[in-house]
Amino acid sequence: MRQSIKDLYDEMSYQNEVWGENRTQQLELWLTILTEEIGEIAKEILEKNDVQNLYHECIQVAAVAIHMAEDIERRSKAGGFNDFKNQ
Ligand SMILES: [Mg+2]
Q1: Distance, CA 51 to ligand 1 centroid (Å)?
Q2: What distance in Å separates the CA atoms of residue 19 and residue 67, rounded to the nearest whole number?
Q3: Cα(81) to centroid of ligand 1, in Å?
Q4: For residue 6, what pLDDT is reported?
Q5: How far does Cα 80 stand from its chain's mean position?
Q6: Which value, in Å, is the radius of gyration of the alpha carbons in the chain?
Q7: How many angstroms is it from 15 CA to the middle of ligand 1?
Q8: 57: CA distance to ligand 1 center in Å?
Q9: Chain segment 16-75, per-residue pLDDT in tens
Q10: Looking at residue 37, what is its pLDDT?
Q11: pTM metric for this prediction
């Protein structure tokens, strides 16, 4: 397995420990979390502090995005987005 995928899996497991598994959140909250994490990537790039931190921020963004996608998939299967355009 590629190291980045292993790191992604480890980060997803860590986030599950901290925030709980199979969590459901409003899309606006997911967007806030994802945007905050992307902001941390921007900070690392602009401040040029530590490339390992930049790598880990990228992994954190990927982990949040996958958790968000899984929440959307679960809720879609349960009919939670049948009226998505009007939510
Ligand atoms: Mg971060």
Answers
A1: 13
A2: 11
A3: 28
A4: 98
A5: 20
A6: 15
A7: 11
A8: 5
A9: 999 999 899 999 999 999 999 999 999 999 999 899 999 999 999 999 999 999 999 999
A10: 97
A11: 0.91
Helices and strands (H and E) in the chain: how many: 3, 0
Torsion over CA of 3, 24, 32 and 42, rounded to 10 degrees? 0
Q: How far is the CA of 58 from the centre of ligand 1 (A)?
A: 8
- Using the structure block, give the residue that is written with the tokens 């809720």: 75
Alpha-carbon dihedral angle through residues 47, 6, 30, 39, given to the nearest 10 degrees: 0
Calculate how far, in angstroms, residue 7's C-alpha sits from the geometric centre of ligand 1. 14
Per-residue pLDDT band for 86 (boundaries 50, 70, 90) equals confident
Model pLDDT, residue 85: 79
Compute the distance from residue 69 Cα to the ligand 1 centre, in Å. Answer: 18
